[in-house]
Amino acid sequence: MTTRLMTPAERVLEVLLTRRSVSPRRLQAPGPNADELEGMVQAGMRAPDHGGLHPWRVIEFPQRERAALAHCFQAEKLRRDPLATPTDLQRAAEHATRAPTLLGFVVSPRPHTKVPLREQWLGAGAALGNVLAAAHQLGYGACVLSGERCFDAILARELGLGPNEYLAGFISIGTIREAPPPAREWLSHTVWSRWPGPAAGSRQAPGSAHPVVGPDLG
Predict the structure, then answer these.
(1) pLDDT of 217 higher than 70
(2) Is the CB of residue 144 less than 8 Å from the CB of residue 171?
(3) pLDDT of 214 higher than 70
């Protein structure tokens, strides 16, 4: 009995189906090199993007700046919780220093009359997914962590964000030291349905006027 070899397309799909988020505590050096990071960003730029706006960007935090970033994280923790313990502050610092490679993912909506904000946010999310998929394809583990610090205005300014930008989260990337637990299996029908046609009472006669709606605010 012979085993059928997967086609190239099936192998690509298999990579996507085996992608997992890997916690920073399960990662170790080395992280991706400059060329590999370039490839990840380019993968993000291939995501669906109405208008080609690229309403997002990434911030790389080099190792030489991690101590300064840790200080920023600790200061944010104290603003949020003045009674934070030394253990709390140490944990905040580790969020800045633990990952071999650390990126900030920033959503940067562009003013555009034909591309509403909701589509720009969807495009940014698709780009983030591509970056993570590219990291997995290259053999690295990766994870996005957000949390309350992403809403801190002072931290956002310290990281160089503009007034209309949003810190979506921090991407940790590195070599997998410890495999994560198996992924939970989800059935496709939890997100997949078939349209049965217009709902009862919603049909309009041909040529009837459409209801007036307000502007699309995104």
Answers:
(1) no
(2) yes
(3) no
CATH topology of domain 31-178: NADH Oxidase (3.40.109)
Predicted local distance difference test score (pLDDT) of residue 204: 66
pLDDT average, residue stretch 19-27: 95
CB neighbours of residue 1 within 10 Å: 2
Indicate if the pLDDT at residue 215 is higher than 60: no
Q: Is the dihedral of CA 104, 110, 114, 116 positive or negative?
A: positive
148 closest CA partner among 169, 125, 177, 178: 169
For the stretch 112-117, contacts whose Cβ atoms lie closer than 8 Å and that sit 24 or more positions apart, written own/partner, are 112/51, 112/53, 114/51, 115/50, 115/51, 115/53, 116/216, 116/217, 116/218, 117/217, 117/218
How far apart CA 93 and CA 199 sit, in angstroms, is 53
Cβ–Cβ < 8 Å for 79, 151: no
Type of residue found at 153: A
Name the strand (E) or helix (H) holding 39.
Answer: helix 34-45
Is it the case that residue 1 has pLDDT exceeding 80? no
Give the pLDDT confidence score for residue 213 in this predicted structure: 46
Average pLDDT, the chain: 91
Question: Taking CA 16 as the corner, what is the angle to CA 10 and CA 20, rounded to the nearest 5 degrees?
Answer: 145
Q: Report angle CA 151, 156, 159 to the nearest 5 degrees.
A: 145
Domains of the chain by residue range: 31-178
Task: Evaluate the CA torsion angle 155, 135, 43, 13 in order and state its sign.
Answer: negative
Model confidence, pTM: 0.87
Residue 6 CA, distance from chain mean position: 29
